[in-house]
Design goal:
It contains 10 helices and 7 strands. A hairpin with a 2-residue loop joins strand 6 and strand 7. It folds into 2 domains: 119 residues, no CATH class; 99 residues, no CATH class. It is elongated.
Length: 248
C-alpha cells in the first residue's frame, strides 16, 4: 500500500504499513531537525533532489544525510541505519542501542549537533573518523594562516590513506618529499613545516620512525621527520654530516 504524507519539505512517499504514533513522532522530529539545521552555520538543506538532503558546509569531506530515506527505513523496515554519505560514499552509521525505540530523526538531530560541535573524535562514529581528523587539522592550519594548493591537498590525502592502511614507510617517504618541496619552493621555515605535519607524524610511533630514519629514503628526511626530544640543531647536524644539500 503506497502512502503519501505532505511535509514542508516535500512529499514523503513510502510503501507499506506503519504505526501512526511512530509516524507522528518522526514528523515532529523532522520539524525539530530542520529548525536545528536552519540555525546552524555548518549545515544546509538541499531541496533540489526528490527528497530533502541535509549537507555539511564545513571543511573536510561533505556529510550528506538523506532524511526521508532514514524515516522510511525506520517506519517500514525498522531499520536503525542512518542514510549518511561522506563525499557521496555511503558510510555505516547506526542508532545507539539505547535509542532503538526513539524516532530516527532524533538520531539525525544528534548527528547534526555533533557537526555543530566540530566533530569531536571521541564522540564521532568510527566510520566518520576522517571527518574528525580533517576538521581538527583545518583548525590548526587556519590558525597558522597557511593555504594549501591542490597538489598539496592531494599529497596530504595520499599520506592519510597510507596511514589508514598502516603503510607507514610510504607515509614517511611522502611526508619527507612534501616537506622538502615546501622548504625549497615555498621557503617555509623548518618550525612551520614541523608544526604543519605534526598531526600526520603523531600517528606513527617513535619506534617505527627511528627504524625509518636509520635508512631514510632521502638523507634530509632526518631534518623533516624529527623525533620527539630531538632538537632542530641535532637534526641540522645530522643532515650536515651527510654533506648533501636539500633537494626537491
Amino acid at each position: 500500500m503506497k502512502q503519501s504524507i505532505a511535509t514542508p519539505y516535500g512529499e514523503l512517499f513510502f510503501v507499506g504499513k506503519c504505526s501512526n504514533i511512530e509516524l507522528k513522532a518522526e514528523l515532529r522530529g523532522l520539524e525539530l531537525l530542520m529548525r536545528v539545521v536552519q540555525s546552524s552555520k555548518v549545515w544546509e538543506i538541499d531541496c533540489s533532489h526528490s527528497t530533502p538532503v541535509v549537507c555539511s558546509t564545513d571543511p573536510g569531506p561533505q556529510i550528506s544525510i538523506d532524511v526521508f530515506q532514514c524515516i522510511i527505513g525506520k517506519l517500514v523496515e525498522n531499520n536503525a541505519h542512518l542514510n549518511v554519505y561522506m563525499d557521496l560514499r555511503r558510510v555505516c552509521v547506526l542508532k545507539k542501542p539505547s535509542a532503538v525505540n526513539t524516532p530516527i530523526t532524533d538520531s539525525i538531530v544528534s548527528l547534526v549537533l555533533l557537526g555543530n560541535a566540530g566533530w569531536p573524535l571521541e564522540s564521532t562514529p568510527g566510520t566518520m573518523t576522517e571527518k574528525s581528523i580533517e576538521i581538527e587539522e583545518s583548525g590548526i592550519y587556519s590558525e597558522m594562516k597557511i593555504h594549501l594548493r591542490v597538489e598539496d591537498r592531494i599529497e596530504m590525502k595520499r599520506i592519510s590513506d597510507s596511514l589508514v592502511l598502516l603503510n607507514y614507510h610510504d607515509a614517511l617517504v611522502s611526508i619527507g618529499r612534501l616537506s622538502r618541496r615546501w622548504y625549497v619552493c615555498k621557503g617555509w621555515s623548518l618550525a612551520t613545516i614541523l608544526q604543519f605535519t605534526e598531526p600526520l607524524r603523531n600517528q606513527i610511533n617513535d619506534t617505527l620512525l627511528s627504524t625509518y630514519l636509520r635508512q631514510p629514503n632521502e638523507p634530509t628526511d632526518v631534518l623533516f621527520l624529527k623525533q620527539s626530544g630531538m632538537s632542530a640543531h641535532e637534526c641540522s647536524s645530522a643532515v650536515a654530516t651527510d654533506g648533501q644539500p636539500v633537494s626537491v
